[in-house]
Design goal:
It is built from six helices and six strands. It is an alpha/beta fold. It comes from Sphingopyxis granuli.
Length: 196
């Protein structure tokens, strides 16, 4: 069963490293038979949050915002590739997701965190779990965390070295957990059984 999974990434930095992880996750999910699509906050380029998508009347939201709302609403699940910025959330990714709310409801999300140092973005992952749960998503329990991202991929974008090896080893369980929740949520939505 093919699933539609959006992979969100939010760095605006010139020499951003996490894009390698986001692209690799898209390819790895596609290799499992799912339709994975990258949502790059820098490419979408929404302004700093002033009005959410739901604050606009039908047909009046900016085109890029409306197009992404449709993609989110059509998706079965999400992966948030979360870099750790000063021990917290990546501002570009947070700004992107804050433009939406009802589109995310009752769908599962997984968090893949990373950092330049040895702690693999764990503090950002913890903060994202709280944020995504508050937005109505079920956040999976299996982490995917990558330390020392600057050296974890080779020039072809494939995982390399010890940290890349850990990523390859951890990914199947991470993806299996997300896909189990996607299938469960799809079944409930198909039966038109909202949780409340």
């Amino acid at each position: 069963m093919s699933r539609v999974i959006l992979v969100f990434y939010g760095s605006y930095r010139q020499d951003r490293q996490g894009i390698k992880l986001a692209r690799w996750i898209v390819e790895a999910l596609a290799a499992r038979g799912d339709r994975a699509e990258l949502v790059d906050a820098k490419a979408v380029d929404l302004p700093m949050l002033d009005r959410r998508h739901s604050d606009y009347r039908e047909g009046e939201a900016p085109a890029a915002m409306a197009a992404l709302a449709d993609r989110i609403a059509a998706a079965d699940g999400f992966v948030f590739v979360a870099g750790e910025y000063n021990g917290g959330l990546q501002p570009g990714l947070k700004n992107l997701v804050d433009h939406y709310l009802p589109q995310f409801a009752w769908r599962p999300a997984a968090v893949a965190s990373y950092s330049a140092g040895p702690f693999a973005g764990i503090r950002a992952a913890t903060a994202w779990r709280t944020t995504l749960g508050a937005m109505g998503m079920v956040v999976t329990s299996t982490p995917l965390s990558l330390a020392r991202i600057g050296g974890a991929f080779d020039t072809a974008g494939l995982p390399a070295g010890e940290d890349g090896g850990r990523l390859i080893k951890a990914f199947p369980r991470f993806a299996d957990d997300l896909c189990w929740w996607i299938d469960a949520a799809k079944a409930q939505r198909a039966a038109e059984r909202p949780p409340f």
